[in-house]
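Predict structure. Input: Sugar ABC transporter ATP-binding protein, 523 residues.
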Amino acid sequence: MTGAAHTPDERPAATPVLSVTGIGKTYAEPVLAGVDLELIPGEVLALTGENGAGKSTLSKIIGGLVTPTHGTMTYRGQPYAPTSRTEAERLGVRMVMQELNLLPTLTIAENLFLNQLPRIKGLGWISRRTLREDARVAMARVGLDTLDPDTPVEALGIGHQQMVEIARNLIGDCRVLILDEPTAMLTGREVDLLFEQVERLKRAGVSIIYISHRLEELARISNRIAVLRDGKLVSVGRMADYTTDRIVTQMVGREIGEQIDLGERAIGAPMFRVDHLTRGTVVQDVSFEVRSGEIFGISGLIGAGRTELMRMIFGADPTDSGTVSLGIPPQPLKIKSPVDAVEQGIALITEDRKGEGLLLTQSIGANLSLGNFDAVSRLGVVDGQREEALSHRQIGAMRIRSSSWQQPVGELSGGNQQKVVIGRWLEHDCDVMLFDEPTRGIDVGAKFDIYALLGAQARKGKAIVVVSSDLRELMLICDRIGVMSAGRLVQTFKRDEWTQDSLLAAAFSGYAKREELLNRDTP
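Output follows.
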């Protein structure tokens, strides 16, 4: 990324719409210190840094979710100190967070207009017709026009939920929009639609703070970039002046290459096998095997059935037919629940770490101890010394940034929360490890830490399965990649066989075939 050819034109100097001066935040220790930053009308300011660098804390302060310990802010020429997200939104400052702010039991339309439901004049009843019409307009802006506005949000995948959250924040008056890792679960088409909205908002004078670890995205849409490291602002400048190497070095304080050595591995005999696994049209007749010491990747578009497949293997979702086998040679298992899967040596690191992987109000130690009761207990009671020892072992191994092992997980950055989930399963020492989007929302430095961790587990003879939306990630770490499309595993590539184009072509092939069959059946 050299920047100049792809970076948007620089905007002329203007009066800042938002200024932060000396902003700092202290919990058990400082997580943000002395940040000075200005936001110009109609610009995209990229905000980047490692997990734990302070990006989300700064954004939440601006968005009214966190009160700063030090410093002041000015918004549109007036002192600005929102006491809640609602107050910030009323003033025109909106934030799309990694943690989705949706009510799962309500419909898409109800979530979009929850605070401004249309009423029938004179009666006070909700006008369902108007609500659906307004929702369709909002949904079309972000490419959700094929969905029914009356669909409950809980029936959507994470990627579609993310687009609903973005659509919600584009409704009404918006002067400052904060996007925190908005594309982590989106397809290329959805990313393009989002960026079209970003350009539209810029032309309307809306200022955007764009948080992402995907550096090519920052080059594509940002005017300026601000880099945080260890809670301090280390650099601010024109995006055109920054290369990828410069950004990464400033983020992590060290050089990181584009290749990774996973070490010498002895890939052995088939150890884990899935045969003809099926559930309706979501997952259809999927079969694959993974050898001892092998890293097997699963690629595909959002909605292709990747997450559903992992959940079925783990016993979290029911299956219509098919078997899961483990051992050398693989022997069929009886898995009716996640408890069965864990007892027989299968672990799942879920894509939804907050909803399914963590107890956010509990300590790091308590979360690491989940599923590891035997390791931290004595005579059926949790032993504090054993829990602390386990915690220190995994905090060190995973390089988890925290004030102590007793810090609540909810206070950690998204990447460090993910490390807690992974650390718990490493302690459990399962033979098969299913990773569903293991580096979603994780910075460049931490990604390489996790890649090295995957390599270490493979060297121990584990069978590793990695689901990822990032093709380059899979191409970097995997020995083979299977591609899912429209619920089917359509093709499997060896390392010397794949290209990015061939993987993408396979990902679309199932949908093209399904559309062809539908057209054939249509009179």
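The CA atoms of residues 514 and 520 lie 10 Å apart.
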